[in-house]
Write a structure and sequence with these properties.
Helices cover 41% and strands 16% of the residues. Strands 1-2-4-3-5-6-7-8 form an 8-stranded mixed β-sheet, sandwiched between helices. β7, α10 and β8 form a beta-alpha-beta unit. InterPro entries: AB_hydrolase_1, AB_hydrolase_fold.
Length: 288
């Protein structure tokens, strides 16, 4: 990936927070929104695959790289206002989001008519109590309060049933130790403009709040009028597939597609296990 492929820009959200984004390509606008433990960089390969057909915008959600911090009065409405500012500045009408980023688009599409079509990859939602995020989120928050970043990350991944198999095979103390070594190594070798997992870890608190609050507002999603494609991977946790099925029955204009053999990381960069070219092919088919 070459930095010359994109330019950087900023908008100001309603509460005065600056939201930065990358821009690349030419054509109809698509805003690509990352999930937890990610940043704009996480979907650069997807954007580069799409840039021959679309102008792709990659925001950094709050707390990351080009964007300002979350504030003490956080609510999902702030994420909606951030996306409203991006859509207004870019004139984009297509949206793609993964995991908690997909949940942001669900919150936004209830009121933002600028969203004409959206593709959502495995929104991390509990539909009618299909999954309980609270125990894992509580353990994560407890560990973060004690300054145990590695243990907090392990709690978050286990709570969301994500991450490599090693999480569930090895003793937890060993997984935490290995995670801590990974964090230290990444920090030592990080470039000046790279956001590390250690820096991303505290932000999961806000993803947890977003997922919890939106899970309590499922009926409000019936108001969404945007055409929606719900994507999933056959190798992903069952609760994410349950969310897809639930959303299909709730959203007025939704269709579904499952990728055989892919998991929750499918849309991300290949160095994180993604298959961005496969996902991009479906985005092209839908965004016409």
């Amino acid at each position: 990936m070459q930095e010359s492929n994109y330019t950087t820009h900023t908008v100001t959200s309603q509460d005065g927070t600056v939201i930065g984004y990358r821009k690349l390509g030419q054509g109809p606008g698509v805003v690509v929104l990352h999930g937890a433990f990610e940043s704009a960089e996480s979907h650069m390969e997807l954007a580069e695959t799409l840039m021959g057909t679309y102008t792709v915008y990659l925001p950094d959600r709050r707390g990351r790289a080009m964007s300002g911090p979350y504030n003490a009065k956080y609510s999902p409405q702030q994420d909606v206002e951030d996306m409203e500012a991006i859509l207004s500045a870019t004139g984009a009408h297509y949206a793609f989001g993964v995991s908690s980023g997909a949940v942001v688009w669900l919150a936004a599409a209830r009121t933002l008519t600028a969203i004409h079509k959206m593709v959502l990859y495995e929104p991390a939602l509990s539909i009618n109590g299909s999954f309980d995020f609270c125990p894992g989120l509580k353990k994560y928050n407890d560990q973060m309060e004690q300054g145990n970043v590695a243990a907090a990350m392990v709690a978050a991944m286990k709570g969301a049933q994500l991450g490599p198999r090693i999480l569930y095979i090895m003793p937890e103390w060993l997984v935490v130790w290995l995670t801590d070594r990974m964090l230290r190594g990444e920090k030592r070798h990080a470039t000046q403009d790279q956001i590390t997992m250690e820096e991303l870890a505290p932000l999961f608190h806000y993803d947890g709040q977003l997922i919890t609050e939106m899970g309590e507002q499922i009926d409000s999603l019936k108001a969404i009028q945007a055409e929606t494609l719900l994507l999933s991977g056959s190798a992903s946790p069952t609760y994410l597939k349950t969310a897809i099925d639930g959303l299909k029955s709730i959203l007025p204009h939704a269709d579904c597609l499952e990728f055989q053999g892919l998991d929750h990381s499918a849309s991300g960069n290949t160095n994180r296990g993604g298959k961005p070219a496969v996902v991009a092919a479906e985005l092209r088919r839908f965004f016409i």
